[in-house]
Amino acid sequence: MDIENLVCHFYHWLVIILMKANEGKEEKDQRHGGYMCVWEETGVDPEGQKEYHLVALNRLGTPPIGKLVKYCEFAQEKVERLSHRPSHLSSWQSRDTKVDKWGGAIKAGKFLLSFSGLPELDDEALCLLVAVDLGLLPLEEARTIALTSNNVGALPLLGSIETACAR
Description:
Blueprint: H1 3-22, E1 33-44, E2 50-61, H2 68-83, E3 105-108, E4 111-116, H3 120-133, H4 139-148, H5 154-166
Antiparallel strand pairs: 1-2, 1-4, 3-4
């Protein structure tokens, strides 16, 4: 995987989501970035569990200094949790807000993509958009993931990718 291209796609879609999410909000209530984390499947261990390695862990944008560690940890925790749940398509399926287990990570072929720094449904939407745009995840699978988490905000954005591809 071309890491620079991956990061560029995350930035591209992050800007679009931030513009939409921050519209009409006071500066103190706006979001400005977070952390992306991507793992790639490397094989299967002796017990039959998929193994992964870290491809990228990057800060994107300008999240608040006081939340850098939290966002970095959450981005990693989401993919770690998802990696241990073979039947799950997203971390939304194992979220538990009482213990800071959030949505925002998805499976996309042999990759796990995560973001933390936005509201969790926007974190997930960002990953879905990046995965579809890079060809890591078919559009219909992305829609299935969005519907599983009731992520209605992601559906029009996914539709914009479909419209662009149809031209």
